Give the backbone structure.
Amino acid sequence: MSPVTHFLTGWVLANAVDLNRRDRAIVTIAAVVPDVDGLGIVAEILTRHSQHPLLWFSDYHHALHTLLFALVVFVCAFLISARKWISATLAFVAFHVHLLEDLVGSRGPDGFIWPIPYLFPFSNRWIWSWGGQWKLDAWPNIALTIVLLCVTVWIAVKRGVSPVDIFAPTADRSVVAALRKRFQTTDLTT
C-alpha cells in the first residue's frame, strides 16, 4: 500500500477514541513507521550505476515489518503519550494494520510479492506472504484510499480536526472550516 493509505489508516484509527493532538500523531505515525526502511531507495537510486551499488531498498525493505519493531513502537508510544495504554495499544494495532495492508496489497510492478519477516531477527520460520497479493496500483488499494479519504473528511466535519493538525494546527482550523462549509448540511427542521 502507499504511504498515503497507511497514513490515512492511522489517522482514522487514531480518531476511534478521544485522543489529544500528540496522541493522534503518535498513532498515525505508528501506521507509517514500518516503511522507514523504504528510505533505502534513495541510496539505491543514487548508486545504481556505480561500481558498488547500495541495494538498501531491495535487500532491506520490509526488514522493519516485524514483531520486534512493533514492540519498540508500542514502548515508545507508551512513554511519550498522554493516554499511555490506549495510545500505545492503538499504535500497536496501527502498526499491524500496516502489515495487513502490505500483505494484501503491495505486489511490485514486476510481480514480486513482498514477504513480511514477522519474527525476524529471532526466527525466519514465520514469514508472511500471500499469493493473491494485488499490485500497488490495483483498484482495491485505490478504493481503500478513497474510502479512507471520505472517512477523514467526515471526521474533520464532525469532530473539527483533520490530519493537517499533526503538522500545523492553525492551518487545520482553516481546512476544517473549508470542509465544513462545503460538506456540512444545515438542519432545516429547527
About this structure: The mean pLDDT is 90.
